[in-house]
Structures are given as structure tokens and as C-alpha cells.
């Protein structure tokens, strides 16, 4: 392998080439040949390419592996993050093209809209600090998407580099009067083609949605970055990940926060 093969720019462009060409990216024995620091550098390089060359606009962050079921699914020890983009986000109700072997699983999630900057100099942050900084709460479904195959064996570094295996984000209406809602015990259910397939409480996410977002704000602060006012944070699945397939009609019931509805074409 050439010496430059593990630099951030090369990794990012290789991963984008797999996305552009819809080609599998076989997981190498032993996992990623680079560490998490290089993986996040590759993720940042991917962001520069998407913004400068393709007109994408970052709108926030996704947090991956914030519950035990997701970590078990991916065989990893802890959470990691990626970017949300305008061109990979759709309001509910949504109709999406199904991409086999790329779109992997549905994850119903609580998302937050941040109301004020959370700067590195103000860290560390806890769940209470995030609550005070939250402008609105939204229902959402993230669809995990990556060409790594088998993707559940890719490991954290590979997935971090591939924008934390982000495929698409479907979001609902923002609720600004959320303060009286119980966002730990709230039950969320996910149905596919009219049948209930999963249900879980928001507390299934590590320390709830606000605690998970605090982890993100602290991780960004450690890297000298600010979680900015107006950015969204989708905080991780409250249920075990549910497989994506062609022809699905998917709905997630978030109670007082509303519903998410999406369909995937049958091709």
C-alpha cells in the first residue's frame, strides 16, 4: 500500500468514491489500518470536500453507538460522532430511494436543536447544561449507510472515517415547549409495513438525549470545536437497530413529539 494511503485526504476520497460508484468496501482483516485520530481527520477532510466541491452544508451532528444494543451490534466499546448535512436530511413524511447494500438499519432517535454556542472554554458540559442550551426537541429516524462490508465488523475507526456510517436523516417538527415532557421515560415505537418491530425508552440512550449530547459537546471541546447555536444533534437510537429493506413503509411514534413517516422505494 502506498505511503500516502492512510492520510486523511486519501481515506476521505476513497470512501466518497465508494459512495459515488455504489461499490462495496470489503472490511480488511484486523479492521482499519489507522486509528481514531486519523479517522476523525479523514471525516473532516470528507466535510471539506463535500462543502467546497459539492455544495453540502453541515447542519449538525449524529452520535453513534450511544446505547448498549448499538454497541453490541457494532462490536465496539463506546460512542463516536459524524456530521449531518442538508443534502442528506429530509423532513417527515419522506420518500427515499432504496440503495441496497448501503442503507443498513433504521434508528429512531431524539434530536436536539442547540440554542446557544457550547464553546471549548466552557467545558465540561453535563446533561443539565445541555438542557439549558436546547432550543427545541425533534423526533427523528437516522438510516445508517456505509459501503463497508460486512459493515458490523468494520470497527469504530473505519466507521468514523466514513462519516460515522451516516446514510440519511429524517426529522419531524420541532417542539420548543418540551420542558414539561419526560424525555427519559418517554416510549418510542417503530413500525414497518404496519407491524410493530421495536419499542424503547429514551433512557436507553446513555444518560438520555441530553446526556448523550453532553458527551458530544465535550468530545468536540476536546478537539477545540464549538457545538454551535442552530445546529442539530441526533442523539442515537432508543431501540435496537432495525434492518432496512426495499418497499418498506416506516413509522415511528414519539408520543407528544409527533411521528416520523417514511417510505423506501421497491427497487
Write the layout of secondary structure elements.
Blueprint: H1 8-21, E1 25-26, H2 36-54, E2 58-64, H3 68-74, E3 80-85, E4 89-91, E5 94-96, E6 103-114, H4 127-133, E7 134-145, E8 148-149, H5 155-161, E9 166-171, E10 187-192, E11 195-201, H6 208-222, E12 232-237, E13 242-243, E14 249-253, E15 259-264
Parallel strand pairs: 1-8, 2-12, 4-9, 5-15
Antiparallel strand pairs: 2-3, 6-7, 6-12, 6-13, 7-9, 10-11, 10-14, 14-15
Structure report:
This protein has 267 residues and is an alpha/beta fold. The protein contains 6 helices and 15 strands. The chain has helices at residues 8-21, 36-54, 68-74, 127-133, 155-161, 208-222, and strands spanning 25-26, 58-64, 80-85, 89-91, 94-96, 103-114, 134-145, 148-149, 166-171, 187-192, 195-201, 232-237, 242-243, 249-253, 259-264. The strands form 3 sheets. Strands 2, 3, 4, 6, 7, 9, 12 and 13 form an 8-stranded mixed beta sheet that branches. It has a 5-stranded mixed beta sheet with strand order 5-15-14-10-11, with no helix packed on it. Strands 1-8 form a two-stranded parallel sheet. A hairpin with a 5-residue loop joins β14 (249-253) and β15. It is globular, with a radius of gyration of 17 Å. The termini are far apart.
Amino acid at each position: 500500500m502506498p505511503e500516502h494511503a492512510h492520510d486523511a485526504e486519501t481515506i476521505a476520497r476513497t470512501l466518497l468514491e465508494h459512495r459515488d460508484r455504489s461499490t462495496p468496501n470489503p472490511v480488511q482483516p484486523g479492521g482499519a489500518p489507522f486509528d481514531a485520530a486519523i479517522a476523525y481527520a479523514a471525516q473532516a477532510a470528507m466535510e471539506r470536500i463535500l462543502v467546497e466541491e459539492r455544495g453540502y452544508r453541515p447542519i449538525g451532528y449524529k452520535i453513534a453507538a450511544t446505547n448498549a444494543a448499538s454497541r453490541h451490534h457494532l462490536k465496539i466499546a463506546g460512542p463516536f460522532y459524524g456530521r449531518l448535512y442538508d443534502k442528506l436530511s429530509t423532513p417527515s413524511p419522506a420518500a427515499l430511494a432504496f440503495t441496497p447494500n448501503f442503507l443498513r438499519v433504521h434508528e429512531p432517535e431524539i434530536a436536539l436543536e442547540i440554542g446557544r454556542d457550547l464553546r471549548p472554554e466552557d467545558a465540561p458540559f453535563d446533561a443539565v447544561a445541555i438542557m439549558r442550551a436546547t432550543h427545541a426537541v425533534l423526533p427523528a429516524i437516522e438510516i445508517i449507510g456505509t459501503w463497508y462490508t460486512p459493515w458490523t465488523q468494520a470497527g469504530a475507526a473505519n466507521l468514523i472515517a466514513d462519516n460515522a456510517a451516516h446514510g440519511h436523516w429524517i426529522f419531524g417538527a420541532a417542539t420548543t415547549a418540551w420542558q414539561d415532557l419526560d424525555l427519559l421515560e418517554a416510549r418510542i415505537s417503530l413500525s414497518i409495513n404496519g407491524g410493530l418491530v421495536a419499542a424503547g425508552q429514551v433512557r436507553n440512550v446513555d444518560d438520555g438525549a441530553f446526556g448523550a449530547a453532553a458527551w458530544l459537546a465535550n468530545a468536540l471541546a476536546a478537539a477545540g470545536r464549538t457545538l454551535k447555536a442552530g445546529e442539530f444533534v441526533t442523539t442515537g437510537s432508543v431501540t435496537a437497530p432495525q434492518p432496512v429493506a426495499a418497499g418498506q413503509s416506516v413509522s415511528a411514534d414519539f408520543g407528544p413529539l409527533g411521528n416520523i413517516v417514511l417510505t423506501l422505494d421497491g427497487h
